[in-house]
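Whiteboard transcription, Tuesday session. T.W. wrote the C-alpha cells on the left side:
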C-alpha cells in the first residue's frame, strides 16, 4: 500500500467547523423575528450547532446526552459502540435505533441498486477515511476486499442483526440524517415550534422561522467554499448535502480522492457529480440518498427522482450545471451565484 503525501488542503478542511449555511432573512414586515438561542457540540466527527425556541441550558444538556448516546451506538471507530461490536462479533441483539437504521439502510440500498451500501466499510477503511490515514490502495487489494462488500450480507430479524461472509459496516453515510430526525422529534415533543439543527452538512429545520417565514438554507458551492450555489426556502424538513469537498486528500500527482466510494469499484465515485443535496422529511433516507445519488451519477439520479415522491434534489455538476428537481426549483434561487446553469429535472408524469 502506497502512502501519500498530503497537500494539506483536504486534510485541514476536515477539522474546520462547517459554517452554518443559514442566511437570515431580514423581514421588514409581519411578525418580528425572535432570536433563537442555541449551542454547539463536537460529535460524529463534526461541529453541530443547534438553535431552537425552547432552548435552555438544561434542555441543551439533554440534547447533548442524546447525541452522545447515539454516537456511542453508531460510531465505527469507538471500540465500545454497538456497531464496532457488530463488526467484530458479526451477530448481535441490537438496540431499536440500530434495527430502525439498518432497515432504512437496506431500503436505501434497494432503491439505489446498491450505490448506497453500508458494507462499503472495507473500502472506506482501505482508503483510510475512517482512520484519517488516507492512502491509495492497490488494485489487487480492492479486488480482494470486494468479497466482503454487498448489502445482501446484512440481515435483520427482529432485534437480531447479523453480517455474513465477514462483512463489516459503517453508518457514516446515514447516521447523521437519523440523528437530525431523532433530535427534532424530541424537541417538538417538548414544545419546540421553531428550530434549526446544523449537523455538519446536514440541516434539519423545525417548523418555520419565528416570524412565520420559511427558513432560507444556503447550499455551499462545491467549487468555492466561500460561495453559495444558491438558497433554498423550506419548512419542517431535512436539507442534506454530500460533497466530495467535505473530506478528501490529494496525492503527489495532484489527483483528488474523496470519501464517497462506489461500492462496485471500491474507488471514489467519479461521474461528473460534485455535490448532491437531498431535501425531504425522512432524514436517514435523505442522508442515504445524498450519498447514493452521488455514486449513481446524473442519469440514474434523474431516473430515481422520477420514480419517487419522497425527496427533492439539487445536484452540482463538475461542468457547471445545477440539476434542480421540479418541485424544489420553485423554492431555489441562485442568489447572486453567476456561474451555474440551472437545469430543471421533471418528476413523475
Ligand atoms: P455522506 O457525507 O453522507 O455522503 O457520507 C459519506 C460517508 O459514508 C463516508 O465518509 C463513508 O463513511 C460512508 N460511505 C462512503 N461511500 C459510501 C457508500 N457508497 N454507501 C454508504 N456509505 C458510504
Ligand atoms: Mg449521506
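and on the right, the sequence the group agreed on:
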Amino acid at each position: 500500500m502506497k502512502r501519500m503525501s498530503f497537500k494539506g488542503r483536504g486534510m485541514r478542511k476536515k477539522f474546520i467547523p462547517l459554517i452554518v449555511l443559514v442566511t437570515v432573512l431580514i423581514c421588514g414586515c409581519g411578525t418580528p423575528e425572535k432570536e433563537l438561542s442555541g449551542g454547539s457540540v463536537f460529535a460524529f466527527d463534526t461541529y453541530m450547532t443547534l438553535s431552537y425556541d425552547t432552548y435552555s441550558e438544561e434542555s441543551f444538556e439533554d440534547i447533548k446526552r442524546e447525541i452522545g448516546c447515539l454516537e456511542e451506538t453508531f460510531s465505527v471507530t469507538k471500540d465500545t459502540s454497538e456497531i464496532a461490536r457488530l463488526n467484530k462479533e458479526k451477530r448481535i441483539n441490537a438496540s431499536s435505533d440500530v434495527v430502525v437504521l439498518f432497515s432504512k439502510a437496506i431500503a436505501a440500498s434497494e432503491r439505489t441498486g446498491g450505490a448506497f451500501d453500508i458494507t462499503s466499510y472495507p473500502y472506506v477503511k482501505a482508503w483510510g477515511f475512517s482512520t484519517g490515514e488516507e492512502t491509495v490502495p492497490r488494485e489487487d487489494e480492492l479486488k480482494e476486499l470486494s468479497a466482503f462488500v454487498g448489502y445482501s450480507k446484512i440481515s435483520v430479524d427482529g432485534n437480531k442483526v447479523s453480517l455474513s461472509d465477514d462483512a463489516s459496516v459503517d453508518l457514516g453515510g446515514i447516521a447523521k440524517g437519523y440523528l437530525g430526525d431523532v433530535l427534532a422529534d424530541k424537541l417538538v415533543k417538548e414544545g419546540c415550534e421553531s428550530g434549526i439543527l446544523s449537523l455538519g452538512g446536514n440541516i434539519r429545520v423545525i417548523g418555520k422561522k419565528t416570524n412565520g417565514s420559511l427558513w432560507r438554507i444556503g447550499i455551499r458551492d462545491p467549487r468555492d467554499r466561500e460561495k453559495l450555489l444558491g438558497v433554498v426556502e423550506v419548512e419542517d424538513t431535512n436539507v442534506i448535502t454530500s460533497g466530495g469537498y467535505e473530506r478528501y486528500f490529494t496525492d503527489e500527482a495532484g489527483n483528488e480522492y474523496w470519501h464517497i466510494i462506489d461500492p462496485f469499484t471500491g474507488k471514489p465515485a467519479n461521474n461528473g457529480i460534485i455535490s448532491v443535496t437531498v431535501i425531504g422529511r425522512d432524514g436517514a433516507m435523505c442522508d442515504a440518498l445524498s450519498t447514493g445519488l452521488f455514486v449513481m451519477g446524473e442519469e440514474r439520479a434523474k431516473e430515481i427522482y422520477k420514480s419517487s415522491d419522497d425527496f427533492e434534489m439539487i445536484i452540482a455538476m463538475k461542468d457547471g450545471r445545477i440539476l434542480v428537481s421540479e418541485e424544489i426549483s420553485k423554492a431555489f434561487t441562485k442568489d447572486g451565484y453567476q456561474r451555474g446553469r440551472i437545469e430543471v429535472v421533471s418528476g413523475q408524469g
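Someone added at the bottom: The chain has a mean pLDDT of 89.
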